[in-house]
Amino acid sequence: MLNNADIVCFAATKNPEAAKRFYEEVLGLSLIEDSPFALAFDANGTMLRIQKVQEHTPAKHTTLGWKVGDIRSHIDALVRKGVRFERYERMSQDQLGIWESPSGALVAWFLDPDGNGLSLTEWPAQ
User: Fold this and answer.
1) Model confidence over 19-39: pLDDT tens digits?
2) Mean pLDDT of the chain
3) What does the buried/exposed string (b/e) look like for 46-82 if buried means 16 or more CB atoms within 10 Å of the residue's CB?
4) Taking the CB of residue 7, how many other CB atoms lie within 10 A of it?
């Protein structure tokens, strides 16, 4: 039934101005709308709505992720813009914060200004 419908992604922010700067200037997403209820961005053809909320407790898991072709170059570019990649105690990560999953996918995590967990993933060539 929904296989032909476009998906919309959601995240939340208590600080819309910081979120707007981060998603637009740091991640490079195009702002579509800044309404009283949400910031809407074009994420490569998918709408990302950052809901403006009074209270927000970030999830303890990844909420948004991007599939990238060269994770190291994306990490380098984001680090130059001030992004800090997360380190997790029980995971074997390299110097850039990249973890190699059992499937061979390379994954690295970072947070937005509200503490929402974001990720980059480079899947192995098939």
Assistant:
1) 999 999 999 999 999 999 999
2) 96
3) ebbbbebeeebeeeeeebbeeebeebeebbeebeeee
4) 7
Over residues 62-89, the pLDDT tens digits come to 999 999 999 999 999 999 999 999 999 9
Distance CA 98, CA 37 (A): 35
C-alpha dist (Å) from residue 14 to 39, 54, 90, 113: 12, 6, 30, 9
Alpha carbon distance 20, 94 (integer Å): 30
Q: What is the pTM of this model?
A: 0.94
Report residue 117 as tokens. Answer: 């967990």
CA distances to 31, 43, 51, 54, 66 from 7, in Å: 17, 11, 16, 25, 15
